[in-house]
Structures are given as C-alpha cells and as structure tokens.
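User: Structure please.
Assistant: Input sequence and predicted structure:
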Amino acid sequence: MNEIVLAKVSAKHADLAYLIGKLDEELLERYPGEEIFGIDVEDPKIEEAVFVVAYHNGKAVGCGGIRPLDHESTELKRFYVDRSVRKQGIAQRILDFVEDAAKELNYSILKLETGAPQFEAVHFYKKNGFYEIDRFGEYADCPSSLCFEKRLPQP
C-alpha cells in the first residue's frame, strides 16, 4: 500500500518538529555557514499559522505551513518532503493543502523564500505558478535569498 494522508497539526506537534529538524539538516548541507530562516514556535503569533504533516504509510514524511504577513499575503514556511519519498506527488499535495488553507483564510497572495542551491524547489514553485519578486521582510538584506509569490484565485 502507498497511502498518503495529510493532517493539519499545531506548530508544536512532535512530527512537525521532527520534519523541521530534517529540513534544517538538509539546509545546513546546502548552505554551509549561512543563515537559515526558520520559524519561532514560541512566538505568540504562531497560533495564526497553519501547518500540515504528510504521512506515508503512517510515517511522517513531509510538511508545510503558512503564516500571515499582512491582510492579503501569507508566507509558505517549512516546506519539506523527505528524500526517500520525493517525486511521488507528496509536495504537490502539501502545496495544494496550504493554498486551500490560505484561500479559506481570504489571503490572495502566497509568498515564499528559497535559494538557488534548492534548484528542485525553485523548479517546483515556478511549475506551480510562482514568479520571482523582490526580497521581502526578513529576507530583504539576504543576498542568497530568492523570493517568489503566487496570486491565489478567489472563489
């Protein structure tokens, strides 16, 4: 069986923390000595964020989330799929989930930050309708940051 189940979770969920740890390990490999932009789960505003964990045959293998930026924009955060299950459509399912969550919360723009060493991610985002924008927010002064956005269709 090759079952994928998505579950909305809290910012402090153990499986989310495990996957974020794996993401951070991979980012440290790709960006040795550089700053990694995470998310502070102790921030009181974290309750405004929405997170999802993907399970493959019961094992946590992917995650993603959105956190509000302003009244019209939200940011894709901590988007990750374990290397062992990539290219099976899990990333697409997670992205679809968070896009739907953003639309349900009446956001019209989904933004994100990544970097050139994450060439697979850049390709995935462009394939899904994201286009490059100027660096924003905490990424404005980070020369290795690539920022993208996507306009979300409203019902």
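The radius of gyration is 15 Å.
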